[in-house]
Design brief:
- The protein is α/β, with parallel strands linked by helices.
- It has 3 domains: about 100 residues, no CATH class; about 130 residues, Nucleotidyltransferase, domain 5 (2-Layer Sandwich); about 130 residues, no CATH class.
- The strands form 3 sheets. A 5-stranded mixed sheet has the order 10-9-8-11-12, sandwiched between helices. A 4-stranded mixed sheet has the order 1-2-5-4.
- α3 packs across α4, α4 crosses α17 and α8 runs antiparallel to α14.
- The structure holds zinc ion.
- Zinc ion binds next to loops.
């Protein structure tokens, strides 16, 4: 096998590229890595295309001489591609560097290397990737933006929507939020923008356009009026459903309030030890019954003796969760019973919750009837939370949005050797 054939395989270069030469530069004294420099040219006879738009265009000049692209590492060595970079005269963009098959326009990295670092950035975070490949954080960030922009230009995430979920996501301390829209059918995030106001939701409907808005049948969201009013105004044909994920969140918050009241009561009357023991229950009570160990379940049963009010609150939360997975008619009947019981429970947070649920009853029944489960929002919310904590927060909402889209909109690059 010829050396150039081996190189072509190792570097994953396509047939339309000619390897003109290669050189291995030894590592310097400072513990650097050896570098394989491969000189390339495009196959002669291929017509020059504009690097920006890909349109065939007449030759312009030789540009600024040769250019270098960092390519995927080979074992202990890093690698670099070198090639001439002539310019074509694009009818739209004017003199522009010619399109090359191994790299995206305006990048110092090859397409394959860029896909690898973006793939890694999605799995871990940009800082870890920057260290791993000895490049700057900004270079990783730019690669993410380039890959996301290219991928989003190829797909239309807003086509064929029937059921969507609109939600808010925190990106920074101090009430900084994004509005995120998911498709219930595919589970993908399809749109995200800075802010959580009526204007933000309006700009989503603007992007969707009237024709596609008319095809929307279901919109799930929480009780937020800034979402509901705009949805009712812009998409009157769609049924607004209350996301069950948020409903359970409300019940969990009510339970936590009861537990806190009881704890404060114990602290005042029952001594420090009982109060301390009770405080330890917090995380136990907030978890779902099926996720508890037998010992933890025993602790909750003991509550029956120790603290009847907290147990009643916990039962109300779990019952509501069960109702949300029942068939429609059974669920409606069970919800009537639940509301009656909660209103008479003498647990202030649950009396209030019952009032809220009555207010949103229509939206909740729509959710139950059409089985728009909370799975989508829940898994996307959790994934977005993981992205945020992996990056230790985002200062710039745009780079957060880029990472959300890369990870959750189905546009993540596959590894170059998997293509
Ligand atoms: Zn062009």
């Amino acid at each position: 096998m010829r050396v150039t054939s081996v190189l072509r395989k190792l570097l994953g270069l396509c047939a339309s590229v000619v390897i003109c030469g290669f050189e291995l530069t030894e590592a310097g004294g400072g513990g650097g890595r050896p570098k394989l420099v491969v000189t390339l040219r495009r196959k002669s006879g291929t017509r020059g295309r504009c690097g920006r738009c890909g349109v065939v265009a007449p030759w312009f000049d030789n540009g600024g001489g040769t250019r270098t692209w960092r390519h995927v590492d080979i074992g202990f060595a890093t690698s670099e591609l070198v090639s001439a970079a002539p310019r074509v005269n694009c009818p739209v963009h004017g003199p522009t560097v010619i399109e090359v098959p191994w790299a995206r326009h305006d990048s110092w990295f090859s397409r394959a290397f860029e896909d690898v670092i973006v793939f890694d950035a999605i799995c871990s975070n940009k800082l870890a990737v920057a260290r791993r490949y000895a490049i700057s954080w900004r270079a990783v960030n730019n690669a993410c933006v380039r890959v996301a922009t290219e991928a989003l230009g190829r797909v239309d995430l807003l086509s064929g929507l029937v059921a969507i979920a609109i939600d808010e996501v925190k990106y920074k301390k101090g009430q900084r939020y994004l509005t995120v829209v998911c498709d219930h059918l595919t589970g993908k995030v399809i749109w995200a923008a800075k802010g959580r106001t009526k204007d933000t939701v309006n700009s989503f409907f603007d992007a969707l356009g009237e024709e596609r808005v008319a095809k929307l049948q279901f919109v799930t969201c929480d009780g937020a009026e800034w979402i509901r009013t705009v949805v009712q105004e812009r998409s009157p044909g769609a049924l607004v459903c209350l996301d069950t994920f948020h409903l359970i969140e409300w019940a969990t918050a009510a339970l936590d309030e009861v537990r806190r009241e009881e704890w404060n009561h114990l602290r005042r009357t029952g001594g420090a030890r009982a109060a301390k023991e009770f405080k330890g229950l917090r995380w136990l009570l907030l978890r779902n019954w099926e996720n508890l160990s037998p010992k933890q379940k025993g602790t909750i049963r003991e509550l029956e003796q120790a603290n009847k009010r907290t147990l009643r609150a916990w039962q109300l939360k779990e019952e509501l969760r069960d109702i949300m997975s029942m068939p429609f008619i059974t669920a409606c009947r069970a919800l009537d019973d639940w509301l009656a019981y909660a209103s008479r429970s003498r647990l202030a947070p649950f009396v209030k919750l019952a009032r809220t649920i009555r207010h949103y009853r229509e939206s909740i029944e729509a959710t139950l009837e059409w089985k728009l489960t909370n799975g989508i929002s829940e898994s996307n919310n959790a994934a977005i939370g993981r992205i945020r904590s992996a990056a230790r927060g985002f200062h710039d909402p745009e780079s957060f949005i880029t990472m959300i889209m890369l990870a959750r909109a189905g546009i993540a690059p596959s590894l170059p050797w998997a293509n």
